[in-house]
Amino acid sequence: MNQSRPKVKKSRALGIALTPKAVKYFEQRPYPPGEHGRGRKQNSDYKVRLLEKQRLRAQYDISERQMVRAYDRARKVKEGKTGEALIIELERRLDALVLRSGLARTIYQARQMVVHGHIAVNDRKVDRPSYRVHPDDVVQVRERSRAKHPFLVAREGGYATDGETPRYLEVNLEALAFRLDRDPQRKEVPVVCDEQMVVEYYAR
């Protein structure tokens, strides 16, 4: 669900940097785009919760329909908080884990890699970014795709983040592969979100 709105403008509107390129622009202009971007705004409770939901959606680059489905599944989890279950549900998406592993630079690139058939799970091609990865699943770049430039960059650590690789992943960049060791914990997932507000938005 690649959105046409420029990523920098979208980052400024949501108050978070969605791509490495957006970080620089966002630091220079940390306010929403447009001539009224610096103006004082009155935020209702609804608007605050709506913004938080949009921020979470943007970080995973998913549609509203996909978000609602993830929320419905999270609501049915018997243990823990619904908000934390929602984050874990989204984090188990194949495109999200391709990003976290360092195989892609942005969630948009990770989605493209999956859609174009470059990624396999347990030796089977998967071209659905929403595919839910399970613990012990092994994800790797397909043999026929490994010589492509993005994966050569990934192998050299070109997309690795400044922070540590999430502990729920075991990554081998040399082999262009990773394994989901276990379900993520909310505190380990590097997304900027007050998930309780997202729950309150959908529960209204």
Q: Unreliable stretches, pLDDT < 50, 5 or more residues?
A: none
Computed Rg:
17 Å
Number of strands: 5
Strand order of the largest sheet: 2-1-3-5-4
Instruction: Give the proportion of residues in helices.
Output: 40-55%
Taken in chain order, the helices and strands follow as HHHHHHHEEEHEEH
Residue fraction in strands: 5-15%
Overall geometry: globular
How confident overall, as mean pLDDT?
88
> Structural class, from secondary structure content?
alpha+beta
What does the model show?
It is a single chain. A hairpin with a 2-residue loop joins strand 1 and strand 2. This protein is α+β, with helices and mostly antiparallel strands. The chain has 9 helices and 5 strands, in the order H-H-H-H-H-H-H-E-E-E-H-E-E-H. It has helices at 7-14, 20-28, 45-60, 64-75, 82-91, 94-101, 107-115, 149-155, 195-203, and strands spanning 119-121, 124-125, 138-141, 169-172, 177-180. It has a 5-stranded antiparallel sheet, with helices on one face. It starts with 6 loop residues before the first helix and ends with a helix. The model has no long low-confidence stretch (mean pLDDT 88). Helices cover 43% and strands 8% of the residues.
Quickly describe the structure:
The chain is of the alpha+beta class and 204 residues long. The protein is built from nine helices and five strands, in the order H-H-H-H-H-H-H-E-E-E-H-E-E-H.
